[in-house]
């Protein structure tokens, strides 16, 4: 019956698991933070000021500019020039958690920005190098965030927090104001309406708001990308907002289907029900999955592809597991073709 044994069905209906327990079985595994945020001097009217002391780890952020400090475990594979392209800040979710955000400017004037939701056992520090390399190779800038309980983000990992976290990241990408070091040269092209900027600006000091660079990225320039557990908030957001495109990398259909692989039905207590939401996505969807995935079986990717009306030609990577798809040449080749050829043709 629905692929479950009698004993499993008895267990489920007599002691049905709550979504949080299913999530625990899937295992959020936040590592010890591999980064902190170091405050830069706040800029007053004269362009100088004193820097607050100490890195940001778990205390609330103060308004201003921040730089990322990586520990050795972050294993950053590039130099200072690439590190300087990384902008970091903290926003707040609707569930009152502090969410660390990162914007990697890989390509000046890039047509698309990728909103990347990472896997369950890494944080932003560990993903830095990958973001720099990925964005440079596919011609996109990368925006990412840490889930509640990951990195310096507060709270604890949970399904509800995942949805609130990506909402906060989406809103930050759409409206956030920052003062990057190179903004002076762009003052005349960025904010012509100081009053509008002042209304959106999160800074409390008297910095000239014309010098603040607002991301202000429109939905049709945002590609939502989710990897593994990151496909859960990605599918949820994409089912509610239209965007340029969606990439689902090693996705899961639902928590129950991971815990009980023969499950065919979505129960009311199931967690992470991607399979029930993917049909609501109105943007082009590229699904990528390894045929030898030992964590989330290849059948999950196939089931989502069959359920998704907006799915494009998928990428099934023969022989790839859960954590090595990026090492196969067809990974970048398929992403490049999707972004540089297929998306423009669909917009034409």
TrEMBL record:
Which GO terms of the molecular function aspect are on file? palmitoyl-(protein) hydrolase activity
A Gene Ontology cellular-component term: endosome membrane
Instruction: Spell out the InterPro entries in the cross-references.
Output: AB_hydrolase_fold
Question: One of this protein's GO BP terms?
Answer: protein localization to membrane
The source's domain of life comes to Eukaryota
Report the SUPFAM superfamilies cross-referenced here.
alpha/beta-Hydrolases (SSF53474)
The name of this protein is Abhydrolase domain containing 17A
